[in-house]
Amino acid sequence: QLAEGRRSCEEIDRQNRQSRAEKIFGRAGIQRLHRGCSFANYRIQNDGQRHALSQAKSIAGELDTGCTNFVFSGNPGTGKNHLAAAIGNRLMNAGR
């Protein structure tokens, strides 16, 4: 019975964590499509995207120190949404 109760508690904890994460992502406006976006899975196809990735990582670091605004601009299909979501995902996963 004890082991069964422990498994039940662990499952409830897992469901609660998942529910909290869903609420956080929902409030952040990050859609399901972009919830898996990270710097690691951003596909670089040219030097411009390499530079954009570097800048996004820098912005993520600056947000930890108080910078609160940034703007991405560029042509369609260059990864702006992916990088913005990667920044948000990194911050939320760090509890920010």
From TrEMBL:
GO terms for biological process: DNA replication. InterPro entries: P-loop_NTPase. It comes from the Bacteria. SUPFAM superfamilies: P-loop containing nucleoside triphosphate hydrolases. This is DNA replication protein DnaC.
